[in-house]
Amino acid sequence: MQIILDFLHSGAVGNFTWGNLVMLVVGGVFIWLAITRDYEPLLLVPIGFGILVGNIPFSPGMNIGVYEDGSVLSILYHGVRFGWYPPLIFLGIGAMLDFSCMLSNPRLILLGAAAQTGIFLTFLGAIALGFDLKQAAAIGIIGGADGPTAIFLSSQLAPGFIGAIAVAAYSYMALVPVIQPPIIRLLTTRAERRIRMKPSRPVSRRIRIIFPVVGFLLTAFVAPGSIPLLGMLFFGNILKESGVTERLAKTARTALIDIITIVLGFAVGTSTDASRFLTPESLMIFGLGAASFCVATAAGVLFAKLMNAVGRERVNPIIGAAGVSAVPDSARVCQMVGAQEDPDNFLIMHAMAPNVAGVIGSAVAAGVFLAVLG
User: Fold this and answer.
1) By CB count within 10 A, which of 119, 171, 317, 346 is most buried?
2) Considering the chain, what percentage of its residues have pLDDT values greater than 90?
3) Which tens digits make up the pLDDT trace of 77-131?
4) Rg for the chain, CA atoms, rounded
5) If 0-12 CB within 10 Å is exposed, 13-18 middle and 19+ buried, where does residue 245 land?
6) Are 256 and 232 in contact (CB under 8 A)?
7) DSSP characters for 259-279?
8) What is the C-alpha separation between 332 and 346, in angstroms, rounded?
9) CA dist., res. 114 & res. 143, Å (int)
10) What is the value of pTM for the model shown?
């Protein structure tokens, strides 16, 4: 009987807390949202199941937990903790992206830049709530709606908050179809949402090949802290555009990015142990992240309206919301909102311009923070 009692005490029964129950429910909700609502299932299913795995308690010393050196979960988590996974994700994203939409109408890059306002305002808000400069920078980057960038920066500046920042960033990325449409409708009129933009101009293959090289050199000199992310992003893009490395590009945008997404999502989920995750600081991070994402969306829409006020060529302000770097979901949301007003108005290619610019912008913002505070 004593052996049985000791066995039960060493497992979930003897170590279970209300916090573990809360996190198990959260993990279940993530999986439910992914399956029934189709909210970023490639992210939420691995993270949600990882949360379940990370919140089954056990006695210390069994060497199976994510925070126990040498365990299998700890080894998988090293890629998150030390920022190995995000550059590999950016390699795959670069091999997917087509920068033609941005190059054909360069002024739409400004919308991607405007959306980064949420990052810097949240940085100031986090400082006001008592976080130090490094922690505030890592929290602010959530507003870019770019999970890999948030993980990379927090691994360098605020490793103690990686779990909360990563889950917050990916959660808001998944909730793009829920969060953005009400903000767009609140800030625009029906007439503005029905604006039709001129078709994009074609971009030559030569320019598409030159751009990754020039783009990397410019961003690297401006924000050298972004080199690991943008170096891999533009490297993946030149693999795609060169036309001579299609096998490598295909591997980067399919098998490689899928493998890293599985491992990264699962590892992030396992790090959400209730004793470390359910803290006042984590709740504040979630609140600040939500505010940052909303402000970023609003800033992009309002800047598009400003462009209409001072420019000759009208821009549909809906696409300003795509300035956050949730690629391509934010651009799809813009298309959906526009189609509800005018089914024949195709905005997605226009929205992809600020969307891909937002990817670069959030990485540059992270590079600036890392250079100044690292």
Assistant:
1) 119
2) 72
3) 999 999 999 999 999 999 999 999 999 999 999 999 999 998 999 899 999 999 9
4) 21
5) middle
6) no
7) HHHHHHHHHHHHT--HHHHSS
8) 10
9) 12
10) 0.92
**Spatial distance between the Cα atoms of 111 and 114, rounded to a whole number of angstroms:** 5
Q: Do 330 and 296 contact (CB within 8 A), yes or no?
A: no
How many CB atoms within 10 Å of residue 222? 12
Helix then strand then coil, in percent of the chain rounded to 5, is 80, 0, 20
Among 26, 295, 348, smallest CA distance to 180 is for: 295
Place of tokens 């690297």: 220
Q: Which residues of 29-54 are buried (b: 16+ CB within 10 A; e: fewer)?
A: ebbebbeeeebbbebbbbbbbbbbbb
Q: Is 207 exposed, middle or buried (0-12, 13-18, 19+ CB in 10 A)?
A: middle
Q: Of the candidates 206, 209, 207, 203, which has an alpha carbon nearest to the alpha carbon of residue 238?
A: 209
**Mean pLDDT, residues 277-292 taken together:** 90
Could you tell me where the DSSP H helices lie in 227-347? Answer: 227-241, 246-251, 257-270, 274-277, 280-310, 329-341
Which residues, 6 or more positions from 157, have their beta carbon under 8 angstroms from its beta carbon?
134, 135, 137, 138, 369, 370, 373, 374
Residues 117, 261: contact at Cβ < 8 Å? no
Are the C-beta atoms of residues 261 and 43 closer than 8 Å to each other? yes
Residues 6+ apart with CB under 8 A from 41: 34, 35
Residues 309-365 pLDDT 10s: 998 889 999 999 999 888 888 999 999 999 999 999 999 999 999 999 999 999 999
In this structure, are residues 299 and 115 in contact, taking their beta carbons and an 8 Å threshold?
Answer: yes
Instruction: Quote the CA–CA distance of 337 and 356 in Å, as a whole number.
Output: 19
Task: Please name which of 226, 294, 267, 285 lies closest in space to residue 259, comparing C-alpha atoms.
Answer: 267
